[in-house]
Amino acid sequence: MSLAASIREQVRRRAQYPCEFCGTTEIDAGGMLTLDHFQPRAKEGSDTLENLSYACITCNQCKQDYWPRTKTAPILWNPRQESASQHFVEQEDGQLTALTPQADSFSPLHQNC
Ligand SMILES: [Zn+2]
């Protein structure tokens, strides 16, 4: 079941149009991005605005249906609750280096996909 166009637009506007995970713009992607369920539907995630992120297809596919189920499983970085600078540092060559386990488990550079 797809989400209503109005929900998609609310998430898109809240994100201010780029991917909330990696910053890919709609221009770079060649069109609108996707909606991602931060906690996947398959893992009891809801369709509420709080659980939806605006994500490029690469980030959405990288994240897939991952959701930590054990205390030792890597937790996910939520871009609406914590800034990227808390989890990544940009090197002089433009590459991002992960600073936290959350960044290692979900890199905006799509290194883990
Ligand atoms: Zn992205």
What can you tell me about this protein's structure?
By secondary structure, this protein is α+β, with helices and mostly antiparallel strands. The protein has one domain (5-105). Helix content is 24%, strand content 12%. It is built from 4 helices and 4 strands; from the N terminus they run ααββαββα. It has helices at 5-15, 26-29, 57-63, 101-105, and strands at residues 34-37, 52-55, 88-90, 96-98. The chain has a two-stranded antiparallel ribbon. The protein has a two-stranded antiparallel ribbon with strand order 3-4. A hairpin with a 5-residue loop joins strand 3 (88-90) and strand 4. The mean pLDDT is 86. The structure holds zinc ion. Zinc ion binds next to helix 3. Zinc ion is lined by residues 19, 21-22, 24, 55-56, 58-59.
Q: Quick recap of the structure?
A:
This protein is 24% helix and 12% strand.
How are the SSEs placed, and which strands pair?
Layout: H1 5-15, H2 26-29, E1 34-37, E2 52-55, H3 57-63, E3 88-90, E4 96-98, H4 101-105
Antiparallel strand pairs: 1-2, 3-4
Zinc ion (ZN) binds next to helix 3.
Q: Which characteristics define this entry?
A:
two-stranded antiparallel ribbon, 4 helices, binds zinc ion, globular
**Mean pLDDT over all positions:** 86
Order of helices and strands: HHEEHEEH
Helix content: 10-25%
Query: Which kinds of small molecule does this entry bind, naming each only once?
Result: zinc ion
User: What kind of sheet is the major sheet?
Assistant: 2 strands, antiparallel
Low-confidence stretches: none
The global form is globular
Number of domains: 1
Q: Strand tally, please? A: 4
Radius of gyration over C-alpha positions, nearest whole angstrom: 14 Å
Question: In percent, how much strand structure appears in the residues?
Answer: 5-15%
Number of helical stretches of at least 4 residues: 4
How are the strands of the biggest sheet laid out side by side? 1-2
Structural class: alpha+beta
N- to C-terminal distance = 26 Å
